[in-house]
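Researcher: For the annotation table, I need structure tokens for Glycosyltransferase family 2 protein. Please keep the output clean. Sequence:
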Amino acid sequence: MTATPPELAVVVPVKNEAGNILALVEEIHAALEGKVEFEVIYVDDGSTDATPAKLAEAKQRFPRLRSVRHRFSCGQSQAIATAVKAARAPLVAMLDGDGQNDPADIPSMLERWRAEPEETRSKLLIAGWRANRKDTASRRWASKAANAIRVACLKDDTPDTGCGSKLFSRDLFLDMPRFDHMHRYLPALTIRAGGSVVSVKVNHRPRGAGASNYSNLRRALVGVPDLLGVMWLMRRSRNPVVENQS
């Protein structure tokens, strides 16, 4: 392991994903080895299965991997926030822990971020777009409907905010307001901060093992108050233009 400070932190929130830990960690390393200096940070959000043991096993093989554990489950958004806070790298790539996001997409997302003018990178979000989703028909329909409603209300012009594959600066994320389920609104929150969003098509795969922690009904029930809250945040935002500093 090199002593060079990492440029990129790959953050992965997990809850009861023991069957997916080793395969995904291996894929992350295979995708990034020799292309960028990176670290991998897993946050175990109060798992009750063998996730802690599998993370310990993975750390024996992959020194770049670090893990943090929530004693009690606090939700995916808080797990992501914990991982970003723990990161040493200034740039963050986010993946879901179920294996459906493909780590092989990260290098192209990184190149797209680097292609942006340096003065705008700090407030740029690269958002994955699952153009060919490998989910059930009911989940695809629910996601399509939710995306249409969200775009109409928030004007975030993002076709797929639910995709876990995202890349952004650590400072941008840490400057955002945090609340439960905020990870679903990162494009709108980026625009609220005066930034921009670029959507890129990414690979999507069937779940590796285990079962989803979410259902369509649960997503819908929490989605309405979340959407109203983000609409309020968007209306109340102000982004000053600083001209002189001494």
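Researcher: And a one-line annotation?
Model: Residues 8-235 form a domain with the Spore Coat Polysaccharide Biosynthesis Protein SpsA; Chain A fold (CATH 3.90.550.10).
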